[in-house]
Design brief:
Distance between the termini: 55 Å
Largest sheet: 7 strands, mixed
Structural class: alpha/beta
Radius of gyration: 25 Å
Number of strands: 11
Shape: globular
Number of helices: 10
Strand order of the largest sheet: 6-7-5-8-9-10-11
């Protein structure tokens, strides 16, 4: 997976005036690094909280999950977007239904589908809204990713990538394709946002890095995606019966991929209520900013639950050196592919009407006739335009 850089984005000054917590964000001197910014964000957040204890505020409060990220302390309604993608039949719809607490039978998703959820605030006068998008078809329709990922919603956007633990032969292909597509789209949107509102674009980068902190041992060895990403390993009820060594390779590989890209990682099964509640809690935190336990699970013999920034390469371990592998990511890739050869996913043809799976003799005959009529009409129009041009002396 190629490493994405954001060299063109300069970090903002996140300092807040003691007398006015809503003061404008200014640019940092270029002598400060992005990690200096993260430290400054944390210090200022703690200062604002201290002021609140003294009865003078606070106007800002630290994020419950990531102390270096500050949020507005307001009762106004907030709209967030949750975008769920992943492999075919990887329980994407089940994850959404259980998150929204809907007792419905999951149905196959056609292309891009939308639903929403609401949650009342403490005063019950306002409700937060979660716009939920689901992309069906596996990686075949990944070009539709640009529909939900826009500069209008990226500030409150979270992406969930579902992989089927019971089918390891699809896991790497799914992750690599979707992560690369998401990274490219996010980079493009942030570049567009920077032209219109540089402070918002810079804040996304700063919040992303603050999840790891300046003292994280891997801060210079990761390629973080500047929006919250969650990798969900579904169908754990089937996966738990796998051979222990295979479970270890799959779990450690997923941990490294999630850690490298700054993603949360959790296992899910619609048949195991404890995992449903864990997943609901994580997604609720992402879209509604609810409290979230920092308790993690990294034991590969149990369902994984690892939050972004709370893992490390030395805790995950490394596979044996592989000839030709240029990076730790390459080593994990080679180990995974040698253990679980990947299946090629069927892609949607450029013209689905010519797909042999959808043959209908009567309809195809009429369609063919209409295509021929359209071609004749086009040629007649072209001939007519040439004749008119000759009469007007515009065509020699």
């Amino acid at each position: 997976m190629p490493k994405t850089t954001y060299d063109s984005i300069k970090p903002p000054d996140m300092s807040f005036d003691d007398d006015d917590a809503d003061s404008n964000i200014k640019s940092l001197p270029q002598t400060k690094s992005i990690w200096d910014l993260c430290i400054q964000v944390t210090e200022r957040a703690e200062l604002n909280v201290a002021k609140g204890i003294d009865g003078k505020g606070p106007f800002l409060k630290p994020c419950l999950m990531f102390p270096g990220v500050v949020q507005e302390n307001t009762n106004k309604s907030v709209e967030s977007t949750l975008f769920v993608v992943g492999a075919k039949s990887a329980a994407k719809t089940s994850v959404i239904l259980r998150f929204l607490d809907r007792d419905e039978q999951p149905k196959a998703t056609t292309a891009l589908e939308y639903t929403f959820g609401r949650r009342s605030k403490n005063n019950n006068l306002h409700k937060d809204v979660a716009h939920v998008w689901e992309l069906g078809g596996g990686i075949a329709l990944s070009n539709l990713i640009e529909v939900p990922i826009t500069k209008q919603c990226i500030k409150n956007l979270s992406v969930v990538i579902c992989v089927d633990l019971s089918k390891p032969e699809t896991i790497w292909t799914t992750l690599e394709s979707l992560i690369n597509t998401i990274k490219l789209r996010v980079k493009k949107v942030i570049a567009e946002l920077k032209l219109e509102c540089p402070s918002d674009a810079n804040l996304l980068i700063a919040d992303c890095l603050a999840r790891y902190g300046s003292d994280h041992p891997d801060k210079d060895a990761v390629d973080l995606i500047p929006i919250p990403i969650t990798i969900i390993g579904s169908k754990y009820d089937e996966f738990q019966n796998f051979d222990p060594e295979k479970k270890k390779i799959i779990s450690k590989t997923l941990r490294y991929v999630a850690h490298y890209h700054g993603a949360h990682l959790c296992y899910f099964s619609s048949k195991m209520e404890a995992l449903v509640m864990k997943t609901r809690g994580l997604l609720g935190h992402l879209v509604f900013k609810t409290q979230l336990s920092k308790s993690i699970q990294t034991d590969h013999t149990k369902p994984l639950y690892v939050l972004a920034g709370m893992d490390a390469s030395n805790q995950i371990g490394m596979p044996q050196a592989v000839v030709g592998a240029r990076s730790p990511m390459d080593q994990w890739k080679q180990l995974f592919l040698s253990t679980f050869p990947q299946e090629a996913e069927a892609m949607v043809p450029e013209d689905p009407t010519k797909d042999s799976k959808y043959n209908e003799n009567i309809i195809d005959s009429v369609r063919s006739q209409k295509d021929e009529e359209l071609e004749r009409f086009k040629k007649q129009q072209e001939r007519k335009m040439r004749d008119e041009a000759r009469r007007e002396g515009k065509l020699l």
